[in-house]
Amino acid sequence: MLNRYLRMLPLLALYAVPLQAESLLTPHKATYKVKISVLGGQLDTELRQTATGYSATHIIEPTGMSRMFARGSIVETSHFDSASDGVRPREYVSRDTLSREKENATIHFDWDNGEARGTVNGGEVVSVIDGLAHDRVSIQYELMHDLVSGDSSAKYTMFDIDRLRPVNVQIIGEKIVKVPAGEFQVVGVQHQAEGSKRVTTLWCAEQLGYLPVVIEQHRNGKLQVRAKLEIYTPTSGQ
């Protein structure tokens, strides 16, 4: 059970960095404490600037007593370019030694030919991309760009390793929350992949550039996962 929900956290952590206007990303490091029932884990995210754009890495690991039941980590990295109208992924890499499936994937986005091509656990995958699509990491930056610019959509497209999945998004209100990193006025952003029973809500702090300070996942109306921001550190340079 722990492995299954930890595996979902890269997708849960949509909006996980603050953006400035015109998709100017702020290099950073952030740490979230994750609670799944009585089990625990940690999500670390980092955004670095590169010569051609940005590189974002998410790392998920079990912590404390949870390491008795689950070992390994999930490391996902996306290399993408930033533009005034959003972000465009170039390469996505996933190395999962935590989940039962032990996923090992590398996907390249060929925009000239309209294809997402690569390998998943040694097997070749190819998918036609008609219009803008994102991997499980870069989608968060596209969503954040749109939220900051006030041009958000109700539907996005995510390339989930070997298939395209529509993702529905809506704003659900505002409130004040207190987490280890501080107290924040937040707006709720809820998303759900079409055909999924899981609904994820991100409570994003405007004063941190809409960084999510609380991430919650419900299945059939029951809370299953909660992550709270512990540390956020802006960084500089490559």
Could you please describe the fold and organization of this structure?
The chain is mainly beta. It has a single domain (2-234), classed as outer membrane lipoprotein receptor (LolB), chain A. 10% of the residues lie in helices and 57% in strands. It contains two helices and 16 strands. The chain has helices at 2-12, 138-149, and strands at 19-20, 24-25, 28-36, 39-49, 54-62, 74-83, 86-96, 104-110, 115-120, 123-128, 155-159, 164-179, 182-193, 198-205, 211-219, 222-234. The strands form two sheets. The protein has a 14-stranded antiparallel β-sheet with strand order 10-9-8-7-6-5-4-3-16-15-14-13-12-11. It has a two-stranded antiparallel ribbon with strand order 1-2. Strand 3 (28-36) and strand 4 form a beta hairpin. The longest helix is centred in the middle third of the chain and has 12 residues, at 138-149. It is globular and about 45 Å long. The termini are far apart.
Structure described in brief:
With about 240 residues, this protein is mainly beta. The protein has two helices and 16 strands.
Number of structural domains: 1
- CATH fold-level name: outer membrane lipoprotein receptor (LolB), chain A
Q: Characterize the biggest β-sheet.
A: 14 strands, antiparallel
- What best-fitting shape do the alpha-carbon axes yield? globular
Q: Taking all residues together, what is the mean pLDDT?
A: 81
> Helix-strand pattern, N to C?
HEEEEEEEEEEHEEEEEE
What class, by secondary structure content?
mainly beta
Tell me the distance between the termini: 37 Å
Extract low-pLDDT stretches: 14-23
Helix content: under 10%
Q: Order of strands side by side in the largest beta sheet?
A: 10-9-8-7-6-5-4-3-16-15-14-13-12-11
Note the beta-strand portion.
Answer: over 45%
Number of strands: 16
Tally the helices.
Answer: 2
By CATH, the architecture is named Clam
Query: Radius of gyration from the CA trace?
Result: 17 Å
Which CATH top level class fits? Mainly Beta
